[in-house]
Design brief:
heterotrimer, A mainly alpha, B alpha/beta, C alpha+beta, A: mainly alpha, Formate dehydrogenase/DMSO reductase fold, 16 helices, 72% helix, C: alpha+beta, Alpha-Beta Plaits, 4-stranded antiparallel β-sheet, 49% helix, rod-shaped
Chain lengths: 447, 921, 171
C-alpha cells in the first residue's frame, strides 16, 4: 500500500468520485436541517455578542471588568487567542507543502479558511477594546491636519501592520489555491448564477501545463514567505507584552513561546474542524482517521513543547530566586487565579499527553475533548499573561484583581458564534477540500 | 431634598421648580457680592476676563478659623489655598479647606426655607418666628450653635440677648474638648487651653493623642513637628502609645498599641518616675513597660525639651496629670485662656438643654449651623425632647438630621458667601470675605440673628464686621481685607505656677472590650459626609473610601473568627470589620461622622453600601470618646468596603520601594545601567527642567495634596461602585507601607520619567515629552488603548472607563452647579481617554506667560499639591538651576528614585523616610 | 486545410503517452488541459517564469520604500522626543516594513502569476471546445493540429494512446 493510499480510501481513487464528493454538497445539494439549526444558533450567539459590543460602545469600556491596574482584560485576551488560532491555518498549509506531506491535501483548504475567519475576528478587537473606537484609524499613517504620523516605536502599530499584512497575505494564498477548484465548479453542471460567480472568480483558468506551472511556482514561493511571516506575526503579538517594563512580560522567550502557543491552539481548532467537516460533509473517505492521528501527534508535540516552555519559566524563577519572580510564581500557583493556572496546565500540557496512545489518537470523543481542552487552556493562558502581571505589578499599593463582567463573556461568546456561522456559510459556496490536490493524490494512490 | 417626603404634591412641584431655579442660577454664573471685596494681591489690570484673582478669607473647622486664599476666576471661586499670614494655615491647607469649595456648589444644599406646610419663603418664616420671640422678650427661646469664635457673631448674639433677656445661647460642638478643659480646671483651677510648641520638643510623648491627625490644629502641629524633624543636630524622637493606629502613630519612631484604659497607667508610670510619689499598682503589659522605660531614658537631660500630649479620648484626670508632668519637665507648652468664651461642657450643656426641652421649658429652639441630632449621645434623648418644642428652626447649609427634625429649616449661606470673622485655635482673628452672592438664597449667620432679633438695627453683615474691628477709615479696612489675618490678636500665654498633682486611678490589666470613637480623618464630625471628594478620599490608615469599617486587631479578629468585610454586631449597631495591624487587642475603633441618615444622597447612601454606622450612637450620657464595654458578635453577613489599597506590608526586596533610614544614614548610591537605545535627545539648554522631590519623612498622610489636585485639575469623583471595581481617578495617591525597618506614607504622582515607558508604546502619540521635561498627555489625541498604563511601572495613569466628568453621584439632583467649580485652565476629560498628573502644567504655563508679559525672570510655579502640603514635604522646581530647592534636595544623601533599577529616570524623586527608633529596638 | 484533432483521456498515464507519441511524431500540440498538474517532461512545456524573483523584488522594494517613509516621518516630518528614545530608532522601525514586505511580495507574485498564466481571460476560444469543460474535473484533453488529410492517422494515434473519446474538427 503506497503512502498516498494511506490518506485516501479506494472509493475515492476515481477523479469523478472526488469531484462529486466535494463539489456535490455545495449549493446544488440540499443544506439539510442540521445546517440550518447550526446556522441560526450561531447567528443568535453572534447577535448577542454584537449587542454586548454595542453596549460597550454606548457606555464605554467601564462595562468590562478592566480596572486602573488591569487595564487590559478579555478584549485583548480574545485578540491574542483568535490571532493564535488564525496563525495555524497558513502555517500548517505552508509548512506541510514545503515538507511535501501528502495528508496536507485534505486539510489545508479549511485550515486556510479558518485562518482568514479567525484573523478577521482577531482584527476586530484592537478596535473594540479602544476607549474611543471611532478614532481607530488614527493608528494608520495618513496625511492629517495634526501633521502627525503613527508612533512607529509602538508595538500596537507593529500589530496593525502585522495583522493587515497577514490577513491579506493569507487571503491571496487561500484564493490562489482556490482558483483551479473554482474552474471545476464553473465547468460542472449546477445552478447558473453560481456558476457565473465561480467562473468570474476562476479568472479564466484552463488548466494548461503553463498555468499549472506558474500556479505551483507561486504557491511554493508564497509558502516560503508564509512560514517566516506567520512566525513574525505572532512574535509581534508576543512583543506587545515583551517590549515592556512589566514583570512577567519582559521575557525574551515570549515571541517563540507565543508562536508555539498559536500553532498549538490553531492545530486544536483544525482538528476540531476536521472532525466536524468529515462528519457533516461525509468526507470520511478523504479526511481519514490517519489524518486525525497525524493532527493528534502534532498536538502531542506542541503540548510537550508548551510544558517545556512553562517549566523553563518556573524553573528559572526558582533557580534565580529573584524575590519578584518568586512572588510572581507563588501568585500564579496559590493566588486567586490559581484555578486558571491549573486549568491551563491541564488543558495545554496534560491532556495532549493522552495521545501517546495510538488508540486514543483515533478515538473521536478523546480527540474532541483534548482539542477543546487545548483551546480553553490557551484562553486561560492569555488571561493569565494579562492578569498575573497587571494585577501584581511593581507597586503593591496598586495591586488589583481582575473580575470579568457578563458583557465580557457575551462578547467572547459572540466571536465564537460569528466564527461558526461564517464557516457554515463558507462550507456552502466553496469546496473545503481542494479537489485538484485530491485528484493528484488519487492518481498516486491508484498507481 | 426638602419635601420630597412631603405628601403635599404642590409643595413637591415647588421643590422641583426651586431646584431648577437654583441650578440655573448657579449655572448662569456667580454674581459678585454687593460690598466691595479686596483681592489679597493687587493687580493693575484688575478683573480681566479669565484672570485668576486671589482673596484672603477664612474657613472654620469646629468653629476655629483657618486663614485661606480663594482663587476666583470671572467671579467664580474655583479653589482654596492657604494663607501664609494665618498661624493655623501657614500658607497651606488641610483636607477640610480643600473640600470646602465643592460644598459651595453642592446641589444637595438647602435652597429655600421649608416649614411644616412644605416649601415656604423668608417672609413666611419671619411671620412664624418673630412674634413668638419679640412678644416674650425671648423667654423660653434657645439659640443652639456649635463652637462660636467669631467676635462679630458673639457680639451680635450678646446684642440680641440684651434686647431679649430670655434668649439663651447654648453652645455644643460635636467633637468637644470637655476632657481637656476639665483636665486644665483640675490642674490649674480654671479652664485653660494647652498650646504645645512642637518645634521645641526633642522628645514628643503622645498618649492616645494624634496631633498629626485631623483637626483645626493639624496644620500648625504637623508643620512644627516636621520642622523640628528637619533640624540638624539631635534627632527628634516621637513616642506614641495609642489604642488604634493613627497618622501620628504611623509617623512615630517608637509606638506601642495599648488599651485606652491603660494609657493612664503609662502616664502614672512616667509621673511616678518624675517624683509624683506612690502611683499605686499601675501595671502594664511588658512591651508598654519597655516603651515607658525608653521614654524615661530619653527624658533625662532634656529638661524643657519634652512634651507629653494626651488625647481627647482620655479622662480629665489623665489630662490633669499630663499638665503636671509638663510643668514638671518645664515643657515647651503655653497655656492660654480658652478661645471659645463658653466654658461650660459641650455634652453637659446639651444634656441640660435636652432636659429643658423634655420638660417643656423651651418654647422656641433655633439651631444655627449645628447638627445635635447626629452627635448628641442617645442617652440624652434629644430627639424625643425636640418633638416637645412648639417652634423649632434650623439654619443649615445641608438638609441634615437636625434640619429634617425641626419644624422649620432654612438655608444657611456658605462661608464663601458671607461676611464675618473667626478666631483660630491660638486666638488669632481673621476676616471672612464673601466671594459670591449666596448661590442658593441662604442667610449668613449674622443675618440669621438679625431675623431673630427683629427689633434690632440691620446695618448689614459687612458693616457689622467692619465696626467690630473699628476699621473706621477705608484704608485701614482695605488693609485688613487684603491681609485677612489681623495681626496681634493671638492669645497671650498666661503665667502659671505649678499644676496641682491629680492622680487618676490606675486601671487593671484585663480591661473589657470597648470601641474608641476618633473623628473621621476625611469627614471630621460628619459634616464632610455630604462632600463627594471627602467621601472618595481614602482614610489615611485603612485607605477605605465611601464609608468606615470597625477596626479590629488581628488577634481579636482571629478570636471572633472574622475577616475583612465581615459584619459584626455590637451595642445595637452593625459594621463591617477591617483588620488593622497596630490596633491594640481588646479595643475596636469606629470613626464618627459616618452613618448619616440625612443630608443628601452623598451623605446618606454612599453608593451600594448604605449610610454606614453612626459611631456617635456609642457615646455615653457623659460624652467621652470611648464606648461603654461592648461584645462583638459576627452576623455572618459581608459587605463590600471599597479601598484604594489592600496591601500595606512590603516583604523581602519589595521593602526597597520604601527605604527607611536611621538618622544620619544615607541611601546607597544607585548603580548606573546602560541602554541599547542610547540616551536619546538632550533637552535644549535654555529650557527649565521641572522636577519634584517628595520628603517621605515629612509626609503625614493627611491627603490635602490629593484633594488639592482633585480641585485644581477637575478630577471627578466616581463613586463607590467604580472604586470597588478597582478604578480610581486621583492623579496623586498617598500609599502607606509597612516593613521591618518601619513604615509611613509615600505620595505617588506621575514620575514624569525622562525615559518614560508610557510614551513610545502609544500608537497615536498621545503621551509626548516636552522640552522642559514634562511627560505630557494630549487628551484629544488619545484613543484609549491604555497601553501606556499597562506599561507604567508606577501605575499612575488614570483612565476614563465611563463618562466620569458627567458622572451624576447626586441621585435625582441636578449636578449642574458642580460644574461651576471646574478650573477653566484645565481640560475636562472625555470618556475613553487616559489622563494623569501634569505637574499642574496650567500653572507652569501661567508662570511662563507672566514672565513673557512682564519681562521678569520666570517665577518657579507652585503645584497644587505642593501648595497644599502642611509640612512642605513636596518641593517643585527647575532642575537645570543648580541652586534651586529641587536641585539642592536631589543632592541630599537621603535622595532616591522609585524603582530606579528600571532606568526610567523619574523626575519625581524622594527623600527617604527617617525613623529614629534608637538602637534597642 | 488544417484540422484540429481533439482527444480526452481518463487516465494521466494515457494522456502522458499521447503527448509523448505526438511529440515523437512531430505533431503540433496546440493545447493540453489537465485537472491537476502533470509532469510532461519537456514536451508542451513553456519556459519557467521568474515568479519567485518578481515576488522577492516586489517585497524588498516595498519594504525599503516603507522604511524610508518611516524614517522621514520620525526624523524629518515631525521629530519629537518620545520617552527619550533616539529619533531614528532603527531597531524597531524595521518591524513594520518586514511585515508589509511579505504582503507586497505576495501581491507582486500574484500579479506575475496572472500575467504569466495569461489569466483573467474569461472568454477564450478553448472554452468553446466541449472536451475542455471536463478537463477541469476528470478528463485530460489534448489538441493536435494537423493537415486534414492525415486526420485519420492522428486520431488513430490518439486512440492507440488510450483516448476515451477523440474527434477531428475541420474549419
Amino acid at each position: 500500500m503506497s503512502d498516498a493510499a494511506r490518506w485516501l480510501l479506494p472509493s475515492m481513487h476515481d477523479h469523478r468520485a472526488i469531484t462529486d464528493a466535494i463539489a456535490g454538497p455545495l449549493v446544488e445539494g440540499q443544506a439539510g436541517r442540521r445546517w440550518w439549526i447550526a446556522l441560526l444558533a450561531s447567528l443568535l450567539v453572534a447577535g448577542v455578542g454584537a449587542i454586548a459590543t454595542g453596549i460597550s460602545f454606548a457606555y464605554g469600556p467601564g462595562m468590562w471588568g478592566n480596572n486602573s491596574a488591569v487595564v487590559w482584560g478579555f478584549p485583548i485576551a480574545n485578540y491574542v487567542w483568535w490571532i493564535g488560532i488564525g496563525n495555524a491555518g497558513t502555517l500548517i498549509s505552508a509548512l506541510l507543502l514545503l515538507t511535501r506531506q501528502k495528508w496536507r491535501n485534505a486539510i489545508n483548504r479549511f485550515a486556510e479558511a479558518m485562518t482568514i475567519l479567525a484573523v478577521s475576528i482577531a482584527g476586530l478587537f484592537p478596535i473594540i477594546h479602544l476607549g474611543r473606537p471611532m478614532y481607530f484609524y488614527w493608528m494608520a499613517p495618513y496625511p492629517n491636519t495634526m501633521d502627525l504620523w503613527p508612533q512607529w516605536r509602538s508595538a500596537l502599530v507593529w500589530d496593525f501592520w502585522a495583522i493587515l499584512s497577514y490577513l491579506l497575505f493569507s487571503l491571496i494564498f487561500f484564493y490562489l489555491g482556490l482558483i483551479p477548484d473554482l474552474a471545476t465548479l464553473r465547468d460542472r453542471k449546477g445552478p447558473r448564477r453560481w456558476r457565473r460567480i465561480w467562473g468570474a472568480f476562476a479568472l479564466g483558468w484552463q488548466g494548461t501545463p503553463g498555468q499549472w506551472r506558474a500556479h505551483q511556482r507561486l504557491q511554493r514561493t508564497m509558502a516560503v514567505i508564509a512560514t517566516p511571516l506567520v512566525c513574525s506575526v505572532h512574535s509581534i503579538v508576543g512583543l506587545d507584552f515583551a517590549a515592556s517594563l512589566m514583570p512577567g512580560w519582559t521575557e525574551s522567550i515570549f515571541p517563540p513561546y507565543f508562536v508555539v502557543g498559536a500553532y498549538f491552539s490553531g492545530f486544536a481548532m483544525v482538528l476540531l474542524l476536521a472532525l466536524v467537516i468529515r462528519h457533516a460533509l461525509g468526507l470520511e473517505a478523504m479526511i481519514r482517521t490517519a489524518h486525525l492521528d497525524a493532527c493528534a501527534k502534532m498536538l502531542l508535540a506542541a503540548g510537550s513543547v508548551m510544558l517545556l516552555a512553562y517549566g523553563s519559566e518556573w524553573l528559572s524563577a526558582l533557580w534565580t530566586g529573584e524575590a519578584a519572580d518568586l512572588r510572581f510564581l507563588a501568585f500564579s500557583f496559590t493566588g486567586p487565579y490559581a484555578g486558571l493556572t491549573y486549568g491551563m496546565i491541564l488543558g495545554n500540557c496534560l491532556l495532549p499527553q493522552l495521545f501517546w496512545s495510538p488508540a486514543l489518537r483515533r478515538s473521536v470523543p478523546v480527540l474532541v475533548i483534548v482539542a477543546l481542552g487545548v483551546l480553553v487552556g490557551m484562553y486561560f493562558e492569555r488571561i493569565l499573561i494579562l492578569c498575573n502581571t497587571l494585577s501584581i505589578g511593581y507597586e503593591p499599593a496598586a495591586w488589583t484583581l481582575y473580575v470579568p463582567t457578563i458583557v465580557d463573556f457575551l462578547i467572547l461568546a459572540g466571536t465564537a458564534g460569528l466564527f461558526v456561522s461564517a464557516f457554515l456559510l463558507l462550507s456552502r459556496v466553496i469546496p473545503l477540500v481542494p479537489m485538484y490536490e485530491m485528484r493528484e493524490l488519487a492518481e498516486e494512490a491508484r498507481a | 431634598m426638602p419635601s420630597l417626603d412631603d405628601p403635599d404634591f404642590v409643595a413637591r412641584r415647588e421643590v422641583l421648580r426651586l431646584i431648577a431655579a437654583g441650578a440655573a442660577a448657579s449655572l448662569a454664573g456667580c454674581s459678585r457680592p454687593d460690598q466691595p471685596i479686596v483681592p489679597a494681591v493687587a493687580d493693575e489690570d484688575g478683573d480681566r476676563a479669565g484672570r485668576t484673582r486671589r482673596y484672603a478669607t477664612t474657613l472654620t473647622l469646629a468653629g476655629y478659623g483657618r486663614g485661606a486664599t480663594a482663587l476666583v476666576v470671572d467671579g467664580r471661586p474655583i479653589k482654596l489655598e492657604g494663607s501664609a499670614r494665618h498661624p493655623a494655615s501657614l500658607g497651606t491647607t488641610d483636607l477640610f479647606v480643600e473640600t470646602a469649595i465643592l460644598d459651595l456648589y453642592d446641589p444637595q444644599r438647602l435652597r429655600a426655607p421649608v416649614g411644616p406646610d412644605g416649601i415656604g419663603s423668608w417672609p413666611m418664616l419671619e411671620r412664624a418666628l418673630v412674634p413668638r420671640l419679640a412678644g416674650s422678650q425671648g423667654e423660653g427661646a434657645v439659640l443652639l450653635t456649635g463652637r462660636v469664635t467669631s467676635p462679630s457673631l458673639l457680639a451680635r448674639i450678646a446684642e440680641a440677648r440684651r434686647r431679649m433677656p430670655g434668649l439663651r445661647h447654648v453652645r455644643a460642638e460635636a467633637i468637644d474638648d470637655d476632657a481637656e478643659r476639665e483636665g486644665a480646671r483640675l490642674a490649674f483651677g480654671r479652664p485653660l487651653t494647652m498650646r504645645p510648641r512642637l518645634a521645641g520638643a526633642d522628645v514628643l510623648v503622645l498618649l492616645d493623642a494624634d496631633p498629626l491627625g485631623p483637626g483645626p490644629d493639624q496644620i500648625a502641629f504637623a508643620r512644627a513637628w516636621a520642622d523640628r524633624r528637619r533640624m540638624p543636630g539631635k534627632p527628634q524622637r516621637t513616642y506614641v502609645a495609642e489604642p488604634s493606629l493613627t497618622q501620628s502613630g504611623i509617623c512615630a519612631d517608637r509606638r506601642v498599641a495599648l488599651h485606652p484604659a491603660l494609657i493612664g497607667n503609662v502616664l502614672l508610670a512616667i509621673a511616678g518616675a518624675l517624683g509624683a510619689g506612690a502611683t499605686g499598682a499601675a501595671e502594664l503589659p511588658p512591651e508598654a513597660a519597655l516603651w515607658v522605660a525608653s521614654v524615661l531614658r530619653d527624658m533625662r537631660g532634656v529638661q524643657g525639651r519634652v512634651i507629653v500630649m494626651v488625647g481627647r479620648g482620655q479622662p480629665a484626670q489623665v489630662h490633669a496629670l499630663a499638665a503636671w508632668v509638663n510643668r514638671r519637665l518645664a515643657a515647651p507648652v503655653d497655656w492660654i485662656e480658652p478661645v471659645d468664651p463658653d466654658s461650660s461642657g459641650h455634652v453637659e450643656s446639651l444634656a441640660g438643654l435636652a432636659q429643658d426641652m423634655a420638660a417643656g421649658r423651651v418654647s422656641t429652639l433655633v439651631v444655627l449651623d449645628a447638627n445635635p441630632m447626629l452627635h448628641t449621645p442617645p442617652a440624652l434623648g434629644f430627639a424625643d425632647a425636640l418633638k416637645r418644642v412648639p417652634l423649632s428652626l434650623s439654619f443649615a447649609t445641608f438638609p441634615d438630621e437636625t434640619a429634617m427634625a425641626t419644624r422649620w429649616r432654612a438655608p444657611l449661606a456658605h462661608t464663601l458667601e458671607s461676611w464675618g470673622d473667626a478666631r483660630g485655635p491660638d486666638g488669632t482673628a481673621s476676616l471672612v470675605q464673601p466671594m459670591v452672592k449666596p448661590l442658593f438664597d441662604g442667610l449668613s449667620a449674622l443675618t440669621a440673628i438679625d431675623m431673630l432679633d427683629a427689633a434690632g438695627p440691620r446695618p448689614g453683615d459687612h458693616d457689622r464686621v467692619r465696626r467690630q474691628w473699628q476699621a473706621t477709615d477705608d484704608g485701614r479696612w482695605r488693609e485688613l481685607l487684603v491681609a485677612g489675618t489681623i495681626e496681634g490678636t493671638a492669645a497671650r500665654p498666661v503665667e502659671l505656677g505649678d499644676a496641682r498633682l491629680v492622680m487618676p486611678r490606675p486601671s487593671p490589666r484585663a480591661a473589657p472590650m470597648v470601641v474608641t470613637l476618633p473623628p473621621s480623618a476625611t469627614l471630621w464630625d460628619g459634616r464632610g459626609a455630604t462632600n463627594a471628594w471627602a467621601q472618595e478620599c481614602p482614610d489615611p490608615v485603612t485607605r477605605q473610601v465611601w464609608g468606615a469599617a470597625l477596626r479590629l486587631s488581628p488577634g481579636d479578629a482571629r478570636r471572633l473568627g472574622v475577616a475583612d468585610q465581615d459584619v459584626v454586631a455590637f451595642a445595637g449597631l452593625t459594621a463591617p470589620v477591617k483588620i488593622v495591624e497596630g490596633q491594640a487587642d481588646g479595643v475596636a475603633t469606629l470613626p464618627v461622622g459616618h452613618g448619616r441618615t440625612a443630608g443628601g444622597p452623598i451623605a446618606t447612601a454612599p453608593g451600594t453600601l448604605g449610610p454606614g454606622t453612626n459611631a456617635f450612637r456609642l457615646r455615653g450620657s457623659r460624652g467621652g470618646w470611648v464606648s461603654r464595654p461592648v461584645t462583638l458578635t459576627p452576623t455572618g453577613d459581608r459587605v463590600h468596603t471599597p479601598r484604594n489599597q489592600d496591601d500595606f506590608d512590603l516583604d523581602g526586596d519589595a521593602a526597597s520601594l520604601y527605604p527607611v533610614l536611621r538618622p544620619g544614614e544615607a541611601m546607597p548610591p544607585p548603580e548606573s545601567r546602560a541602554s541599547l537605545l542610547g540616551d536619546g535627545a538632550t533637552p535644549p539648554p535654555q529650557a527649565p527642567q521641572w522636577a519634584m522631590v517628595i520628603d517621605a519623612s515629612a509626609c503625614i498622610g493627611c491627603n490635602a495634596c490629593v484633594v488639592a489636585c482633585q480641585a485644581e485639575n477637575n478630577v471627578p469623583a466616581i463613586g463607590p461602585e467604580q472604586i470597588g471595581k478597582g478604578r480610581d481617578m486621583h492623579w496623586l495617591r498617598v500609599d502607606r507601607y509597612e516593613h521591618a525597618r518601619g513604615g509611613g506614607y509615600q505620595p505617588v504622582p506621575c514620575m514624569q520619567c525622562e525615559k518614560a515607558p508610557c510614551e513610545p508604546v502609544c500608537p497615536v502619540e498621545a503621551p509626548v515629552h516636552s522640552a522642559d521635561g514634562l511627560n505630557l498627555q494630549v487628551y484629544n489625541r488619545c484613543i484609549g488603548t491604555r497601553t501606556c498604563q499597562a506599561n507604567c511601572p508606577y501605575k499612575v495613569r488614570r483612565f476614563n472607563f465611563l463618562d466620569y466628568a458627567g458622572a451624576d453621584l447626586w441621585g435625582d439632583l441636578d449636578p449642574a452647579p458642580v460644574s461651576a467649580q471646574r478650573n477653566p485652565e484645565v481640560t475636562v476629560r472625555a470618556r475613553g481617554v487616559m489622563e494623569k498628573c501634569t505637574y499642574c502644567v496650567q500653572r507652569i504655563e501661567a508662570a511662563k506667560h507672566e514672565a513673557d508679559a512682564t519681562g521678569a525672570p520666570l517665577q518657579t510655579p507652585v503645584t497644587a499639591c505642593q501648595a497644599a502640603c502642611p509640612t512642605r514635604a513636596i518641593t517643585f522646581g527647575n532642575l537645570a538651576d543648580p541652586v534651586s530647592d529641587v536641585a539642592r534636595q536631589r543632592r541630599d544623601p537621603r535622595h532616591y528614585a522609585l524603582l530606579e533599577e528600571l532606568g526610567t529616570r523619574p523626575r519625581t524623586t524622594y527623600l527617604a523616610k527617617i525613623r529614629n527608633a534608637g538602637g534597642e529596638v | 486545410m488544417t484540422a484540429l484533432a481533439l482527444a480526452s483521456f481518463e487516465r494521466e498515464a494515457a494522456f502522458r503517452a499521447a503527448v509523448s507519441r505526438a511529440g515523437a511524431e512531430q505533431r503540433r500540440i496546440v493545447g493540453l488541459w489537465s485537472p491537476y498538474p502533470v509532469e510532461l517532461g519537456d514536451i508542451g512545456e513553456e519556459p519557467a517564469a521568474p515568479i519567485p524573483w518578481i515576488a522577492c523584488l516586489g517585497g524588498l522594494g516595498a519594504a525599503i520604500l516603507f522604511y524610508a517613509f518611516i524614517w522621514w516621518t520620525a526624523t524629518q516630518a515631525y521629530p519629537f522626543d518620545s520617552g527619550g528614545r533616539p529619533l531614528h530608532s532603527w531597531q524597531v522601525f524595521l518591524i513594520a516594513p518586514i511585515e508589509l514586505g511579505a504582503l507586497a511580495a505576495a501581491v507582486a507574485g500574484m500579479i506575475a502569476f496572472l500575467i504569466r498564466a495569461r489569466m483573467t481571460r474569461l472568454h477564450h476560444p478553448a472554452f468553446d471546445i466541449a472536451e475542455v469543460e471536463r478537463a477541469s474535473s476528470d478528463h485530460f484533453v489534448i489538441a493536435l493540429s494537423c493537415d486534414e488529410t492525415e486526420g485519420g492517422d492522428v486520431l488513430a494515434l490518439l486512440t492507440r494512446a488510450g483516448a476515451v473519446h477523440s474527434r477531428l474538427v475541420t474549419r
